[in-house]
């Protein structure tokens, strides 16, 4: 059981446990629950070096909702079981999975297939069986057996070729390669952008921050600051670049403040285009901006003219996710009113913000519901904070006011969790849309422009000739007129 | 500059309330025997010695009572201007200050109106009464300030408006046949709303305050301050105060106009708390079996009049309960006089620029 303990503790430490009980009995379930409880208590009491959202622990210590799947003949339910488990893992945002399955002989094929799929995706799998009953199969052996088993083991099933494992291989390769993501944050100064980024990624991206006074701001123009940080979680590497835009909207005359930003975005596209058309295309570094969080001030009555102009200028270049900053200024009614107002103004001005893709029809009801909830909450009203405050004996992140405590991760207080979920589950989609839509638009524009430039040179010559001729004719007319006038004058005299 | 104190009294039939400017209430308790008679109405300052001692009670101190009665009968007017970006809660704050729906929002403006393209000046007047004292309150709003992309010179319409009011008063004063009571539309107090970013003032704030602190009493206020935790609040205030000092902006109460030690100490106390961090609300909620004005959120109720939550009560006491008269006096004696001196110097004479209306009147 040491593997099991290790797996459980690892999952707890990465703050995720999702359990899929495929044909497990009550006994299995209770045993697993007991083990998880013990591990939780141990982890809690032993160290508090890591900041973990205790909300998940509390959930575990109560009765979690364990989806139950009744036993089914191996052939029909293989795919579904595996896919469901995967989605539960993905949807919770963290690819760690503890799977408890009672492995008795009749379910052997199902469970083993599922286990194999999960293992091959790099998810940590914990298998549990009815120890002692039907005696022989024990978890440690199971794990070893199935992690070592090649896919060919399953060719015994009639008509099964095996290319269904292709996605697994792709997945494994990309996990090894790591992901890159560039996030741009734009908004007036003092809206809490840096605090929000720090809260989202649980890091401190701006250790020595110098906030300039107003007199200095008068002279400043918009700058672009990019900071990169490498985050690793469960074997998945993410190279996250956050592009900050200090000075945006500060000046009295903000006419030029988005030129710098647009230039930066175009430069990244240009560089990628150049690399893509180059000879050595192995290691193209993707610095294109995949997503832009646009911070809207909660103090106004909707979008300001500056917001509208800026979003109109970049909605064809980057995915815009509008975010209402410092949402603890607003009561619930004010928040709803503001959201509605902003959505109305966005559609009124024809601004295209990033649309979450609808959940496919064959996906989990839970996932569909989650997508619906996310879509309904745009723009997200968020609060950021990295200060730990003690509330009812628990340490949570929040802001302490004389009249109450605002919790960052409480979905009733703000949409921070929704924003994080959206970002994490749709990172891939954001990159895809950037690649397929915005980059392709840019590329076609660029190449068209380059083509037109060559044509225009030829055309120019003809045009110049025509113009010169027209000028000559005009001059001749003028001279004729002057001559006529001169002739008349001596006549008058 | 010595402050001159005097009274205007006559009432033109149409305009009922008047700007009576009585003497500052003296800081003394009326003693039985005043030790020297007040030569001017600069208050019976009994502290001083010298002068003849009276042998009995005359009743000079009843003049205070007479003035009070007169003020109550005639009422007085007060003009306040609110400036700030849209959505900072200006109208709500004014409603909260005067505990009635006096702002522009309720007379002709809906919440869904669009931001105007240039700065507009809109005034709304109401007469409110309390304890037998009538006040004609005029609130001037400036929608469109600071909301555009290009906010260059957006303070100019406001500066022009303030000067226009001085000009109007000057014209009336210079007339040969003066009205008994000149209607006072000069702006007595300008509340400037600072956005609670928590960082520092913005360049627009500095520019506006530089241009207007010399011609009107400017009181900066931190709007929607329920965004800031107490530590952030005090840090922000310190930074704002430092920046105002560095840029040489004198907000009301100006240090140079403090009369005596008591004034100075009172005002110093106020200056330490300025700018006031306020929250406005016109909705009432039940808190501990009391009805209080506040904002209800999922994590608690922000009480507007609770000193631990925000400084609204301090602002209200400051403007209305203790310095209302002083605001009017400083406007009249200092800002208006400065404007007048500049105008007369520029013209080199007593005659103001004649407009059509002027020539008509002087021809009468």
From TrEMBL, chain A:
Name the Gene Ontology molecular function terms of this record.
Answer: GTP binding
Q: What is the scientific name of the source organism?
A: Alosa alosa
The identity of this protein, by name, is Septin-type G domain-containing protein
Subcellular location per the Swiss-Prot or TrEMBL entry: Cell projection, Cilium membrane; Cleavage furrow; Cytoplasm, Cytoskeleton, Spindle; Midbody
Q: Which CDD domains match?
A: CDC_Septin (cd01850)
Coiled-coil regions, chain positions? none
Cellular component GO terms, alphabetically? ciliary membrane; cleavage furrow; cytoplasm; midbody; spindle
Q: What is its main location?
A: membrane
Q: Which PANTHER family match?
A: SEPTIN
Xref: Gene3D superfamilies: P-loop containing nucleotide triphosphate hydrolases (3.40.50.300)
